[in-house]
Amino acid sequence: MIFHKILINWYLGNKRDLPWRKINDPYRIWLSEIMLQQTRIEQGLPYYLAFTEAFPTVFDLANASQDEVLKLWQGLGYYSRARNLHETAKLVSEELGGKFPDNYKDLLKLKGIGDYTASAIASICYNEVTPVVDGNVYRVLARYFDVDTPINSSAGQKEFKALAAELIDEENPAIYNQAIMDFGALQCKPQNPLCETCPLSNSCLALKNNKISLLPVKLKKAKIKKRYFNYLVFLSEENETILEQRLGKGIWEGLYQFPLLESKSLIDTEVLVTDSHYFSVGADHQQKISLYNETPIVHKLSHQHIYTRFWIVEKGELNGDTIPLSKIEEYPVPVLIANFINEFELSDY
Known about the structure:
By secondary structure, the protein is an alpha+beta fold. The chain folds into 2 domains: 3-214, Hypothetical protein, domain 2 (Endonuclease III, domain 1, Orthogonal Bundle); 225-348, Nucleoside Triphosphate Pyrophosphohydrolase (Alpha-Beta Complex), CATH 3.90.79.10. It has 14 helices and 9 strands. The chain has helices at residues 3-14, 26-35, 41-54, 58-63, 66-73, 80-95, 104-107, 115-126, 135-145, 154-167, 173-186, 205-208, 269-275, 335-344, and strands at 225-236, 240-241, 244-245, 256-257, 260-263, 287-291, 297-300, 304-315, 323-324. The strands form 3 sheets. Strands 1, 5, 6, 7 and 8 form a 5-stranded mixed beta sheet that branches. β7 (297-300) and β8 form a beta hairpin. α2 (26-35) packs across α3 (41-54). The chain starts with a helix and ends in a 5-residue tail after the last helix. Residues 35-186 form the HhH-GPD domain. Its EC number is 3.2.2.31.
């Protein structure tokens, strides 16, 4: 039986019951695809449901503030996806009358939409014959055809895209693309794939050559950078604190955080007071500084590990812009700060 027919037959009996598969709305397909980039469905599904409830149409998302979008996205990671999502919603709403482009080429022009997402939307919504290539597809093709070209190399991306284009079912591109993605997620899993019950096992070259665990091949990542974050959690007698919005193009752009002192290593109270501009020169008898966590919380990102400690600073009065502690949970913050707020129960102060 032909490769694509085997996959489609498998899919019809094993496909996952997902809310965006019950409709043919480009807005919701786009939402799901953006949210599930580098995210497991189990993690992304609650966010999808929350977003579609809060923003049922692209116009609703476009009219929301960036803070509202980031707050709802909080904890999902890769926040540039949320910012791009918001920008694209505004463009589609204001310049395209709320209608997404109906073809791969024009979808690629939208911010935050790359080859995979454009292919997914074009094939699923408009039945365009354009293959999707995500992590699941890379794995299925690399194993089935025993391809050891690194999937995160430019040569690998071209090779697998061309191979996927050869295999796609031109009569049913929408079903085929969803079939091969589900097959990679459920049958040809990264760890402990179900080779014994696989409908492709008789012709799988990696299985024949005992290379299942070796494929797909990925080039090694660059060395992980270590960073040391010291957050200053100011608490005033009026139950207020200070939050600042992260600017620039670094991690967590647009999110809020406590005043931050980044250091080259772990520091003590003396260095904290000396190096941070938040403390006045000389002794401040109205402040009490205590370290909340001696052992740093290690927050791991793809390219850096952040060693975080929270310093509680109790002061009679706070200078600058402050917010009531009772409203702190209204602000979008990185997940490590959200966890601290919940653990310390700041909003109850």
